Protein 1
Amino acid sequence: MDKTVRRYYQQKQKQKEIEQELSELRSDILAYLAAQEASELEIGSHKVKIVLQERKEYDDNKLFEALPDPELWRLLSKPDTSKIASLVKLNVITEDRLKDTFATKTVRLLQVDKK
C-alpha cells in the first residue's frame, strides 16, 4: 500500500505541474490571439479558436426569494446551475420566475485542434 500511496502522490504532483503549464500556455495563446485581434487562427498544423460561453451565477438570497417552496429547495440543496437548468427544462420552474436571481458571466474557452 505504501507504494500505491507514494505513486498517487507523485501523480498528483505531476498533475499540478501539468495544470500550471497548461494555464500558462493558455494565457500565452489568448494573448497572442488578442494581439492579432482574432478569435480563430490556423497556426502550423493546428486550428486555434476562442469559444465564448455564457454561464449563470445565481445569488442564493434572490433565488430563495424566487423559490420559497421547500420541496424545490430539497431538489436543489444549493444553487447548482445544471440542476436549475434541468428543473427549467422539465417545466418545474419557469424562466420568468428566475429572471432576477442570477448574473450572466461570459467565459472564454480555448479550443486547439489538429487540422
Protein 2
Amino acid sequence: MTAADERIEHRQNQFHTWGVYGLLAASTLLSVAAHELMTSPAEWYAGGALVVAAVLLQLWHGPRRGRRTPSRRGTVYYVLRWAIAFALTWLNPFFGFYASTGYFDSDELIPGKRRQWLGLLATVVVVAGSQSGGMPFRSPIQWLLFAVLLVANYGLLTVVGHITQQEEQRSRERAVTITELESANAALQRALDENAALHAQLLVQAREAGVADERRRLAAEIHDTIAQGLTGIIAQLQVVANAPDLAVARTHLERASDLARHSLGEARRSVHNLAPVALADAGLPEALKRTVAEWGERTGVPAEFTVTGTAEQLHEELAATLLRIVQEALSNSARHAAAGRVGVTLSFLGDEVILDIRDDGRGFDPLAVPARTSTGGFGLDGMRARAERIAGSLTVESEPGQGTAVSARVPLVRHD
C-alpha cells in the first residue's frame, strides 16, 4: 500500500469512527434548540435515554481499523442503530441527521447485496420521514411529501450506488491489470536474467570450444608433421647403423637431414601460430608499432604504422588474430612484393576494428593465387580463416604493378 493509500484509509477510518458521534451530537443540539418539537417531559427523558443508548452502542461497536467484513455482529449493530435512529426521529425530525449514518456503512456491516439494499431502504424511510416534517404524519400532504422524498432519496441512492459499484469494478480491474503487469515484468526480468546467464554460458562454451579446436589443430599438426618427421629420421638413422657400405649410409644420412630441416620448419610454423609473445607486455597498437618497426629495420623497406580513432584494450584473442594477420601480410610483402614502402593502419570505429596493410609492390591477380606450397607461409586463405573465426572478414585488393591492400574488418570486443 502506498503512502497516499494509507492516508485515504486513515481518513476513512476517522470518518466512520467519529462521523456517527458528530451527526448524533449535531442532531441532539438541533433538537434541544427546537425544544417546541418535544413538548412533554417524557419525550425529553426518552430522547435523552435514546441518545445515551446510541453512544453506548457506538462504544460497543468500537472504532474502525480498516475496511470491515460483513458479519452477523455488524448486522445486529446496524439494526439496533436504525431502531434508535427511528425512535429519535419519531421524537424529533432533526435526528434524521443521525439516521443518515446508515448510508455510509451498510456494505461493511450487512452480508449480501439484497440485505444491504433492504438496510438502505429502511434508512431512506427514516430520513424521508424526517425531511417531510417528522413522524407520525398528520395530513395527506405530509404523506404525499413523504412518498416523493422516499422515491427521490432511494432513486438518488441507487444512482450513487451504481456509480460507486462501477468505480469499484474499475478499481478492481486496474488492480488486476497492475498485478498482471507486475507478474509480466517479473517474468520478463527472469527471462532477461536467464538470457544473460545463457549468453554468458554460451560465451564460455564458445571459448572452450575454440580452445579445444586449437588444441586439436595443434595436435594434428604435431602428429602429421613433427612426429612423423622425427619417426622418419629415426628410421633413416637405423638404416645408417646397419648400412653395408658408406654410399648407402650417406644416402640415408642426407634423407635424415632433409627430414630434420623439414621438421624444423614445421616446428617453427607451429610455434609461429601460437599466442604472440609481443602481446604479453603491451596492447595491440604498441605490439603492431614494434612489429612494423622491426620488420622495416630487418628488410630495409620504409614502414609506417598509424592508429586512428580512440584506441581500446581488445580481447586477447582478437588482438592475437590481428597481429598474426599483420605478421603474415608483412611476410608476404617481404617475400613477393618487392615494395618500396609499406603502411599499416589500425582504425577503431565504435563497434568494429579495421586493419589495413598496404604496399606499393609489384602486386598480383587475387584470382590467380597459386595453391599453398610446403615452403609457403600461412597464406591469404589462412588470414581470411583467422578473420572469419572471430566473426570478421578479410578482403584483398591488388593488380599487377599496382601494389596490394589487405583489409581485415572485425567486431570490437573489449578485454574482459
